[in-house]
Write a structure and sequence with these properties.
Chain lengths: ~375, ~375, ~375, ~375
């Protein structure tokens, strides 16, 4: 139950700080015999890594993954896989100011009160940099799920600040730095550039989807598939809201509208977002998350220091103006880790169950 | 990690089915020495129980709690507290229809595919009836947290179907069957009566608040306080969305607006919803949840049966037209259980930490 | 991780006190679809229950099991199975003496110091009575393992006090109140009768065996099969030692002797006790446990009371002169629960592994 | 619950293989604010490391610990502490033989059957080399427990093969390569040299003691302190038996003898080994473990290969003739990890309990 481990059967223990010597994770419980090398992990890390466009932090980290254990002759052995990522561009500047003051909207204050001590270098443990090992672990889960079930994970930005982004095609997502499903991102570029000039930041909304889901994953009563998805997503830095399927729109829906009808040809609609009663229906998992604006900004803010004295805080340094911009690959990884855990749990308890009814096909997915 | 246990240190294991002989829970890890009797639990169960107004299911269950263990001479001993609630108004009707068909939007289908077998009586394990033991456990947590820290949990309805409900006062919440914070609930009554006539159902939005929170609760990186809140809430029957603080509104906010400024006199605003970096700030925990419309409705729906043959499903029987109506006391209990777990975890690791800085006061709470 | 739950995937949560209103357990994670009724559980409870001979406590408890949940139309549904056992022969005597003093060798003192409060009635939570729900849960595990793999669990007494018991046949075990594998138990009867007259008690040694084991169960590095067996057995009331295979005799063995040779016809010997590297070999699991003498005895003992004042303690009431006498069915249940947990864990991670080598047959089992 | 994590609140996740690039662990849950550097860990690693005498494997590993995270300016921050130990003396020899055959008494066979694949280099994951990270984690736990309670952990060899070792003094333990509590180890040297010449190996018995224990640690019903000790010790490579206090000798004891009397001046005797009812008494924890002979020996053994064909196995290479020789510091670390976990768990549930009775002093410890 340690606070830095994700999952129980596919258990990923994360370690490191933003400006420490290294970050990484230990993946315990991976099924044996799967082909695995750094080449399976690196592309996902490259999608997430900083410094790749002018719209994200300029910290230049190669985020090179090294597999230290758990693989023999190119195959997983079933023993723990340690993935190590050395930090290379941490800067040895004076953190005196940050150490003594609390950025509004940042974890500075709560870490200080909880632990009585905190590592202020680049946000220490609370930095979004710690999502890199999660992405690495997610790459392992994604590979197994793809090979086992054909499950595929995708995410895209659906809003940045006040600018909504209409879905055009998944094909565009990899072609722009915003993970936006649109061909033309000029409006997004302009918006972020203007923010930068203002010394300000903004939020974002991300859509995360798993397609090719097996039916039957999820554990009632408490460890529901959607509950664990909410846990994973809300645990991502800066996330303030999570929706499954129709989400908050379901409040104003009626039962006759919301409940997805079933026919032998498949489900009609996916208001459920792929989960009923905490268990996967086989439809796409449809998740939306809300990401708050970055709290490290150049604009001066009212705050206090560790003595309780009023101060004005200005945060210089290299920061993302919108942490949501790089969130898509991370959210995909988180969703994959949840599905992986439940795939193994399902096999444990129900490995020999056959209902006798073929899975009902999914509705045509939203926005494909 | 069993799917029917909530928490690790304050671990609540839930059992039972809607129309079985009994439901209940085992609460393991309760601190010893606290005065406890059924009288501490029953009022919370009474707030949740069915049959108390014409706007909820007419099933008439007294939901009488019996403490079987863990209490000696009126005090908790530190050993497991088993709370048993006998079912008394389950009806022995023919479940043949329900057993063979799947209600759209209901867990019927997924349970059948996962387990190959399901208890169809009143929804079996997937029934909202199983929230009663959770409310009982929550009552124990609430008592301890109130005595230890003065923490208080409250919830109210903020929208039912298409009808938004403006906050007037917490005082009204207990005075109407909707847990609505308004004096006049005529509009709500009319809305639900009309739904009933239509053989339809609707969703709801619930606000849940913890006041008097200690600072420092929550475990980064994964077991964040807000992550666990999202897990608990999304795991509640019919919930499709969870927000903390500004929630989805934070997408369109700027950093200069969102980050709650700090002064020696206290926080200015609570966009954070009481959590920064996964750790409590000491401000009120502010949570909003979206509840979907009930899937058991009289209107005929298109579906299939266990052979995959098309059928029309009409659900008779006693059902809530809006499961959100009774959700407030349940959501309070869930929030209390999350805070309780983290209070014990915090004491385990950081029981002797003293930061030297007095907790910053909370902002004046929203809607008080 | 709650201290009253056994296992993670097949998680058994135990509740109750010796003289409370009821004891019981919740079994979470049982595979669905298995035929199950009280008739599968009661015979095991009957083997363990008190009052069945003059060599055990005269407390007369029918130990009638009631299944409250998790079974529908005679089959497990995959949801939690609550088994309730009402206490019927608890006596409402004055516990004043016991409450204020500590029996040497008993949990009285440690419970008092840990919790600051304790239920003194019949030993409260520390009573061996709490093994009844464990036996009930074990019966469920045994049934599944027998149907799935043909695994069978047996235990017998191999020593009582100073009297060693040579193995004759498993057939005798059920025919005498000592669970002794011998036809003539006169010597054992005389020994215990003499003890009784002396107002004293004695220890015992129990052998526990699982036959028909699948190969490959157990999780290195820490959750080894033998480690979990040791945990389960040492957690049984009054156990002070656990051996696997050759046990302490292996200290004086040489490598050439200890390592069980392998041939295509099977293993030669079973010094390993069925476990190598923490993983089952497919040979019989061979376990020995040491049980200490009962601490509740008529002979006066030197002790202190809750104020730290010297007192003389004499324990009247109904007590087993040798708790080891009824330990055999309990130890079998514990071993079954460990194997069950690992069977599910193995299926989770390695459900599709095929090594290509048929399991090597077991050596002819010891004492068959 | 991953199989490679020790503990829940003080959770140590171990990774690596004997001849991989590195081994290590992540320690999650360490209380913040404790001074910590590699200098606190290295001395314990040095006590355990190979190549330090002619009686152990000649593999020459410096076992240099590098702390990668969780420490800032020389103090623990409460975040995960990753300790990395690079392997430096792994040899790139041909493992073809070992890969295809199974050493009798070794994990070769069970790993192969469980995972369908195994890393044969130096025993891979099943090597005793993986105890190094455990010793590192134990050093952190020991430091905290010493500072918090004054608890001290010691172990010594009490028998090697057929040679019993009488206790003289703890002072001798550090002065000879056997961790023997005697001044003159000539007999032990001769014994092991003779074994070597025979191409054979032997077992050992180790005594492990914790002094300065707080009263009240341990969680009934299942996570008893002694149960967790048995789990930890039996999980150590090659251990086949565990005793607490009087252990197997308690079988032949009577209740009047076994139960340790209590007086205001303290306990009289320690047959309990420091645990009653699964909870620490405050007396010394007294543990004995049996270690089997090394299975990697030069003498030819009968076995089979991965095709099931009979083969003769001779294990060359660098191996300990008695793995028990280096077991003392490992067993100390394991005991410390168990106590640490329970210290935090106790604080979680019972952090504010005061019984009003001062802890009863321990008996004069055995062999001091």
């Amino acid at each position: 139950m340690s606070g830095n481990t994700f999952g129980n059967l596919f258990a990923v223990t994360n370690f490191g700080e933003s400006h420490g010597s290294a970050i990484g994770c230990v993946i315990d419980g991976c099924p044996p015999g799967m082909a695995l090398s750094e080449a399976d992990i690196q592309p996902e890390l490259d999608r997430r890594r900083p410094g790749t466009s002018k719209f994200v932090t300029q910290r230049n980290e190669p985020d090179t993954a090294e597999i230290l254990s758990g693989v023999y002759q190119g195959r997983t052995t079933g023993t723990p896989i340690c993935v190590l990522i050395r930090n290379t561009d941490q800067r040895s500047k004076d953190y005196g100011d940050i150490l003594q003051t609390f950025r509004p909207g940042h974890a500075d204050y709560t870490y200080f009160q909880k632990y009585g001590i905190r590592d202020p270098r680049g946000g220490g443990r609370s930095s979004a940099r710690l999502t890199a090992p999660t992405v690495a672990a997610g790459a392992v889960a994604r590979k197994w799920l793809r090979e086992q079930y054909g499950t595929v994970f995708r995410a895209c930005m659906t809003q940045i600040g006040e600018v909504p982004i209409a879905f055009e095609s998944w094909e565009h997502v990899g072609a722009n730095p915003f993970f936006a499903p649109v061909a033309d991102v000029t409006a997004l570029e302009d918006y972020v550039q203007a923010l930068r000039k203002d010394g300000d930041s903004c939020g974002a909304r991300i859509r995360v989807v798993a397609s090719g889901m097996p039916v039957g994953l999820g554990e009632p009563l408490f460890d529901k598939l959607d509950a664990d998805i909410a846990w994973a997503m809300m645990g991502l830095n800066a996330v303030k809201g999570v929706e499954i399927g129709a989400g908050f729109a379901s409040v104003a829906q009626r039962g006759t509208t919301h409940g997805d009808a079933m026919t032998p040809q498949g489900f009609v609609g996916n208001n459920a977002g792929g989960v009923l009663g905490g268990i996967s229906t086989g439809q796409d998992l449809e998740v939306q998350i809300a990401i708050k604006p970055t709290s490290s900004i150049l604009s001066p803010r009212t705050s206090i220091d560790t003595n309780g004295t009023p101060v004005e805080v200005v945060t210089k340094g290299r920061h993302d103006p919108c942490v949501g911009i790089r969130a898509a690959p991370i959210a995909e990884a988180l969703l994959a880790l949840v599905v992986m855990e439940h795939a193994l749990r399902h096999r444990a308890q129900c490995g020999d169950v056959r209902s006798g009814l073929a899975p009902v096909p999914a509705a045509a997915p939203l926005g494909d």
